[in-house]
Amino acid sequence: MRKLILAAALLSASVSAAQAETIRVGMSGGYFPFTFVKQDKLQGFEVDFINAVAEQTGDEVEFITMSFSGLVGALESRRIDTIANQITVTPEREAKFAFSQPYVIDGAQVVVKKGNESEITGPESLKGRSVAVNLGSNFEQLLRELPYSDEIDIRTYESNLEQDTALGRVDAFVMDRVSASQVIRETPLPLALAGQPFSEIRNALPFRNDDEGNALRDRIDAAITILKENGKLTEISQKWFGTDITH
Prior knowledge:
By secondary structure, the protein is of the alpha/beta class. It is 38% helix and 26% strand.
């Protein structure tokens, strides 16, 4: 009987190994503290999160970094299988992609040069102002949906929007509240939060909306449920943010 149990265990391990896949995960590698490179090592909340997911699914992970604006195209052209870069769920994106359940809940935050937070106190104060957003991010869309968006000079950036705001080249930038707080905490730039977050954001992993993509989404979604229930996702959040941003 012991030999039969051992044989069954070996067979199970063999089948799991045979079924294991390499999940190609795209990210920018330039979105602190979610995904960034330090001392030549890719790290951050997203990296730990995906590695924890892979531990549950039994898959290998290949991280592929590229500019943020190229990630969606890479997913559509099958160069990657999903994107771990705080992708916000929107009706337009849901029409194109199959999303996992949200694993980060956040809000859009206006950030200004320190000292200007009494003049710019939130999105209503952006009328007549120049505002930077990351190219291809959801924050550009959020700004353009404001009823007075034609009064805002929206400028898209591949990088360095924080520096240009601190130097006064633009009046403000908009990104998620958590990242903005971390930038202010971790960099010497004279920046400050301006008002309260103005829109709830639910971030999730997008997959191609076909049989293969949906199957991968379902497998990863089950893993995310386990990580939420066993506290691992909260643990990862506490490590990077000192608070739980996953609910």
